[in-house]
Design a protein that fits this description.
two-stranded antiparallel ribbon; about 0% helix; 14 strands; twelve-stranded antiparallel sheet; mainly beta
C-alpha cells in the first residue's frame, strides 16, 4: 500500500508594530509532499520533504515495525512525544501558527521509539531515546555531542469507546530528560513570536552545561462541533557563561495554552481535525 499526500500553506504577513526587523511579505509557509507506505502488516514508512524554505529539507523519515497494536517500534526522524499540539498534524491546527508551548517542546528528532495502545485504545504510550535537540527546533543530521535524551508520554482516553459526553476527553503527561554540553543553536533555543520573529536568544558566550528537563501535563476534549486543547510545558536547562563556573545556573522557561474551536459547517471536530467533510 502506498499513499501520496501533501500539505500546502500560503501566508501573507503584515506587521503593524512591535515586530522590528520583519517585513510585510507573501510566503509559502509549507510545501510538504508526503509518501506513506505499508509492506504487509509488519512494516510501514513515511517520508516528508519540505520545499517551502530557501533550502529543501527532510521533515520526516522513519520506519515502523508494527509487531502488535500494543507495541510498534519507530526508527528514524520524527516528532518527539512531548508537545500535544506539536504531535498534531499541520492540516489539523486550529490556528495559523502553533502556540508558545510548542516553542518549548522538541520538534523532530532522530532516534528510536517504542509506542502502542493498550486497553482497547484507552491508553496510549510512547518512550524513546533520541540524539536530543533544543526547544522548538528540529535535530541536525548528526548528534552534536555524545549525550542522548530520553522522552516519554502516557495518554488516557477512559471513555473513548463509549457513546457519552466524555468519549472525546483525553489527558496525559509527557516529559524528557538528558544532558546538553555546547554552545550555539544546536544546544540552546531561540524563542519566536507567532510571526516567527526571534524575540529571545542566548549570547554566544553562553553554554548548555548539564541537565535539560521538560514536563508537560496536557489534555483535549471534543464533543460534536466543539473542541478544546490545553497544555503547559516547563523546560529547564543548566547553562554557564564560558568557562566561569561561578556563572552556572539552571534556567526555567514555561508556557501554556488553552485553545477552543467550533466547526461552523456542522462536522464533528477532533484532534485530527475534520476527518470527513459532510459535503
Amino acid at each position: 500500500k502506498f499513499k501520496l499526500r501533501g500539505t500546502v500553506q500560503a501566508d501573507q504577513r503584515d506587521f503593524i508594530q512591535g515586530d522590528a526587523g520583519q517585513n510585510n511579505t507573501f510566503l509559502w509557509r509549507l510545501i510538504r509532499p508526503s509518501l506513506e507506505g505499508q509492506l504487509g502488516s509488519l512494516v510501514a514508512f513515511k517520508v516528508v520533504p519540505e520545499f517551502a524554505g530557501d533550502t529543501p529539507s527532510l521533515v520526516d523519515a522513519y520506519v515502523d515495525l508494527r509487531f502488535d497494536p500494543r507495541a510498534t517500534l519507530r526508527v528514524g526522524k520524527f516528532n518527539g512525544p512531548i508537545g500535544l499540539e506539536r504531535l498534531q498534524s499541520s492540516s489539523a491546527l486550529s490556528m495559523v501558527e502553533r502556540a508558545f508551548p510548542t516553542e518549548l517542546a522538541p520538534n523532530r528528532d532522530i532516534g528510536v521509539q517504542l509506542q502502542g495502545e493498550l486497553a482497547s485504545g484507552r491508553v496510549s504510550y510512547a518512550a524513546g531515546v533520541f540524539n536530543g535537540t533544543a526547544d522548538g527546533r528540529d535535530a541536525i543530521a548528526n548528534d552534536p555531542d555524545d549525550d542522548v535524551e530520553f522522552e516519554g508520554r502516557v495518554f488516557f482516553e477512559p471513555w473513548k469507546n463509549d457513546a457519552n459526553a466524555l468519549s472525546g476527553l483525553g489527558f496525559g503527561l509527557a516529559g524528557s530528560t538528558g544532558e546538553k554540553h555546547g554552545a550555539g543553536n544546536n544546544f540552546l533555543p531561540r524563542y519566536r513570536t507567532p510571526g516567527q520573529n526571534v524575540f529571545f536568544n542566548y549570547r554566544a558566550s553562553v553554554l548548555a552545561d548539564g541537565q535539560h528537563q521538560r514536563l508537560s501535563p496536557q489534555f483535549y476534549y471534543y464533543r460534536n462541533r466543539l473542541g478544546l486543547l490545553g497544555e503547559w510545558i516547563s523546560s529547564e536547562q543548566e547553562v554557564q557563561v564560558g568557562s566561569n563556573a561561578s556563572t552556572h545556573a539552571s534556567l526555567r522557561n514555561q508556557a501554556w495554552q488553552l485553545t477552543g474551536s467550533w466547526v461552523l459547517t456542522g462536522e464533528d471536530g477532533s484532534y485530527r481535525g475534520v476527518v470527513k467533510p459532510n459535503h
